[in-house]
Write a structure and sequence with these properties.
alpha/beta; DHBP synthase
């Protein structure tokens, strides 16, 4: 590159004048980056232009050599660039002036966007997530002298919706749902003023020119005849709705006041937000929340609560520094925190945690300007369907749930539920050994607090999507990962020049409804168009009957691309490996504990152990298989699972015969003397204190003796009773022994019940001032803190291993036998609540757990201890230092923390999912990586 001085004839100056073409990718659109570049150019006397294109931002700059150098260096200065901006790549090409060139830029300007697409390069361009209102906008919103006082859509280049209002890239007003709102002269002046923070703020608007809010009562909507739930009905009835609503809408602040009055009267309201509608009600009103649960058919699943500010939230939940940072962050997730009480029982139905979040949309703050108390705010949808995002859809689907609607006329282009995060205990150990690639935008967020504290995602959506995850290695191809069937998130994986990048979708929910599956397909089509993405392979779950699996297979045929099947639990482990930046050649011991996943052998897995690298994870162990009596019914019935495990404890055929012939015994064919020889026995001891076997199983499971007899016949005949090794179902069985009876009303309810018991027990049994569930060396568990179990090794169980190359090291397959654990638990459960033990010292533990609730907590804690010890024993056998744990079971903070502690104490490198959910919401990451490397 040659530098050349230009003479006076070419309008040059005495200093060396240079020109540079600068290309920037990353989060550089929709964050005020072009205005920032403009101001830098003014500062350094640079001429040229800046524009958005399909790759990010392009700058052509010319000026004095030193000034140009300072200008370029300032582009990625953390102290100067916009707070939301994140530069991934910066490419600078210098161009010397040449004699023939007579044109010099006279000014520096922001040009219109260049939309000449470069297909997959769009994955290098990150549209920001939807960002909570910033401090400056909030001050204006609440300032009576400001022209935007209580304006529900106030925003600037530092805040507001982006992802949910953007139709296409590059990011310009014409490409958003704000295209139909023409700015008034005042807003236009702000938009064109380089010194204004709304300089090129694309969603800019005000009362005079921007979107409006409106309120309508459900009783007015009910005037429409032929109400229908179908989407086709929505289209057919839209005109009718418009006519009915024309004279019944209340606008502006009157609309919000009407809404608040309805809430104060105990009403349920439906409010249009940024990524969809919320159903809201007074969080202290028992009657309102009972009614909401009844109308929404949501008996016990906890509701999240929106508080007006952090001070109010701290009155109802325990909030530490990390929690406060998250709650006040630009992402504003729902945080699961310890409940202080004070709100309605029907908020969380007695659980120890409460979902807490703060207002993030200006409209929320406008509501709280007229309302003091906290609000339940839950996704507005019909059970099993996606969150509602359109006004007419809300009217038609939710008019029998909500008493009134607060709507607006800014379209939501993408559904996007609230994100949910669980804050973990402060601890002596960093739970993860890595830095979770792709989170550098937030790396300094918690630097003023204890660096060993952690949190992990339950649901990653609003505020975080579509932030990409950057991999430490490259991929061979571009991949579409179709995700899991439940808690669906799909992914686009991009094979870059140096390293791969993955964009995970927002939370799509379960795909077992027609509306849910349609939403999944629509969102994939939207992402492909948005990123101009053309996959070379599609990866899907190995379950042959999942709708998204069948769709992906057809998609592969239609596009003539590679279709790749990946077993569910391997995808879990790979997601953990990828998130933590493990290299392609690193070997791990992988543990996947969850509720369900289709296994290689056609059974239902869920308590699995693997060893290997990304592309060759071998299943080397599993929990002992048991049957799901009644199939899917058992998934919702902890008592059925417990009954099956009790059947499984039988050690001799005579014992099974005893059950089958129990009616004969009752008829007098056996007497107590000879019947006592055929008690049910475990492999170590008698588990029942009475020969009335059916009665014992009935009392433990909550089912009648007749039902128990039917269950046993189904089991013995294999009638609708598939095999499983699910750790999640083992949680259910233990929960049943601890008092959970009846069917679960939402996924994971029994496991949450068990965790609740464990946390309550630990909090009561800890010394004063010691945080329950904290990770300290003093809490290191040992075998004496656990129930008994066995790990049996052989090489007969794993068909997957038998397909390996002959020269590959053979692993003995092991099986975790949990029957001794259940024997111990039943022994405790059946201990009478009196002091009739003859040997007080020998039965000290039994004497300690006489109280029923104390027993349940004791069992819950010891069960978690036992699982953690099983993990350690299996890891020691694996001879592998890297341990990756994933799956929905690891949302249990107690298990997560105890396993981390004992593994680290034994020299292992420990990895969990943190920035990506460990539940099925993280499956797509594992699928995408696998599809890109094999």
């Amino acid at each position: 590159m040659n530098n050349k001085n230009c003479d006076d004839n070419n309008n040059a100056v005495n200093a060396v004048i240079k020109r540079a073409k600068i290309r920037l990718s990353g989060r550089v659109q929709g964050v005020g980056f072009r205005p920032f570049v403009y101001r830098l150019a003014e500062k350094y006397g640079i001429k040229g232009y800046v524009l958005n294109n399909d790759e990010g931002v392009e700058i052509s700059a010319e000026g004095d050599e030193n000034a140009l150098h300072n200008f370029i260096n300032s582009l990625d200065s953390d102290s100067e660039k916009p707070p939301l901006a994140l530069i991934k790549d910066k490419i600078v090409d210098y161009i010397d002036f040449i004699e023939q060139e007579h044109f010099f830029y006279k000014t520096f300007e922001i040009k219109e966007s260049d939309k000449t697409a470069h297909a997959v390069d769009k994955l290098n361009l990150t549209i920001p997530p939807d960002i909570a209102i910033c401090g400056k906008c909030l001050n204006e919103l609440l300032n009576p002298s400001d022209r935007r006082y209580l304006y529900p859509f106030i925003n600037c280049t530092d805040c507001g919706p982006r992802f949910t209002i953007s139709k296409e890239l590059p990011y310009d007003r014409a490409s958003t749902s704000m295209y139909k709102f023409t700015m008034c002269p005042e807003c236009q002046t702000e938009y064109k003023n380089p010194l204004d923070r709304r300089f090129h703020a694309e969603p800019n608007g005000c009362f005079a020119c921007g979107p409006e809010v409106e309120f309508i009562l459900s009783s007015d909507i009910s005037k429409i005849d032929n109400y229908t739930h179908s989407l086709s009905g929505i289209e057919e009835r839209t005109q009718d709705i418009a006519e009915v609503l024309k004279s019944n809408r209340l606008k502006s602040s009157n609309a919000v006041k009407s809404l608040v009055n309805l809430i104060k009267e105990g009403g349920i309201v439906c409010v249009k937000g940024i990524g969809g509608f919320h159903l809201m009600a007074d969080a202290a009103n028992d009657d309102a929340l009972r009614l909401l649960r009844e109308r929404k058919n949501r008996p016990k699943k906890p509701f999240a609560v929106m508080f007006k500010d952090i001070g109010q939230a701290s009155e109802y939940a325990y909030i530490d520094g990390i929690s406060a940072d998250l709650l006040n962050s630009k992402e504003r997730p729902i945080c699961l925190l310890k409940d202080r009480g004070g709100l309605s029982y029907y908020v969380n139905c007695g659980l120890k945690d409460i979902g807490v979040f703060l207002p993030y949309a200006p409209l929320h703050y406008v509501i709280f300007a007229f309302l003091d108390g906290p609000l339940v705010a839950t996704s507005a949808n019909i059970g099993g369907e996606p969150i509602v995002k359109e006004n007419e859809e809300a009217f038609l689907k939710l008019k029998n749930i909500a008493d009134g609607f607060l709507i607006h006329n800014r379209d939501i282009l993408r559904r996007c539920d609230d994100s949910v995060i669980k804050v973990n205990a402060v601890n002596e150990y960093n739970l993860n050994n890595a830095h979770n690639y792709g989170t550098d935008a937030d790396k300094n967020q918690y630097e003023n607090h204890n660096k060993t504290a952690s949190y992990f995602f339950i649901r990653r959506s609003r505020g975080y999507v579509p932030e990409p995850l950057n991999l430490p290695f490259n991929l061979k191809r571009n991949v579409l990962a179709s995700g899991a069937f439940l808690k669906n998130v799909f992914a686009l994986a991009y094979a870059g020049e140096d390293a791969g990048a993955i964009v995970l979708s927002q939370h799509n929910g379960d795909l077992d409804s027609a509306a849910g599956f349609a939403n999944f397909k629509n969102n994939i089509e939207d992402f492909e168009k948005f990123y101009d993405f053309k996959p070379e392979a599609v990866v899907y779950d190995s379950h042959p009957d999942y709708e998204n699996t069948k769709w992906a297979k057809e998609y592969a045929k239609e596009k003539n691309i590679k279709g790749i099947s990946l077993q569910h639990h391997r995808a879990h482990v790979i997601s953990c490996m990828a998130e933590n930046g493990l290299g392609l050649n690193e070997e791990v011991f992988g543990i996947a504990f969850d509720g369900t996943g289709y296994g290689d052998d056609g059974t239902i897995w869920g308590g699995e152990f693997f060893k290997g690298k990304y592309d060759n994870l071998k299943r080397i162990g599993s929990f002992e298989k048991f049957r799901l009596i009644g199939g899917d019914k058992a998934v919702k019935s902890p008592g059925r699972v417990l009954a099956e495990i009790l059947f499984g404890i039988l050690s001799e055929k005579e014992n099974i015969a005893a059950i089958l012939h129990n009616e004969d015994k009752k008829a007098g064919k056996y007497n107590d003397d000879n019947y006592s020889d055929i008690y049910i026995k475990s492999k170590s001891k008698c588990i029942f204190k009475s020969p009335d076997i059916f009665k014992n199983i009935s009392s433990l499971t909550g089912f009648s003796e007749k039902e128990i007899s039917i269950f046993h016949k189904m089991r013995e005949n294999g009638l609708n009773s598939p095999f499983t090794s699910s750790c999640g179902r083992i949680f259910d069985a233990v929960s049943c022994l601890c008092g959970f009876k009846g069917d679960i009303t939402y996924e994971g309810e029994a496991a949450v019940y068990l965790e609740n018991l464990c946390l309550e027990y630990e909090s009561k049994s800890k010394s004063a001032g010691e945080q329950a569930n904290s990770i300290t060396k003093a809490n290191l568990i040992t075998k004496k803190d656990c129930f008994k179990y066995e790990i049996r090794y052989d090489n007969k169980h794993d068909n997957y291993n038998k397909r390996n190359e002959k020269n590959e090291e053979k692993e003995d397959f092991f099986t975790v036998d949990y029957y001794p654990m259940f024997s111990d638990i039943i022994d405790i459960v059946q201990t009478k609540n009196n002091n009739d033990d003859k040997d007080k010292n020998k039965n000290k533990d039994k004497n300690k757990v006489k109280d029923k609730l104390y027993k349940a907590g004791f069992i819950a804690e010891r069960f978690i201890n036992t699982l953690a010890m099983i993990i350690l024993d299996a890891a020691l056998k694996s001879r592998c230092k890297n341990v990756c744990m994933s799956g929905g079971v690891f949302q249990n903070a107690s298990l997560r923390n105890k396993a981390a502690l004992i593994l680290k104490n034994n020299g292992f490198n420990v990895y969990f999912n943190e920035k990506i959910p460990s539940n099925d919401g993280g499956i797509a990451l594992g699928q995408a990586v696998y599809g890109g490397i094999i």
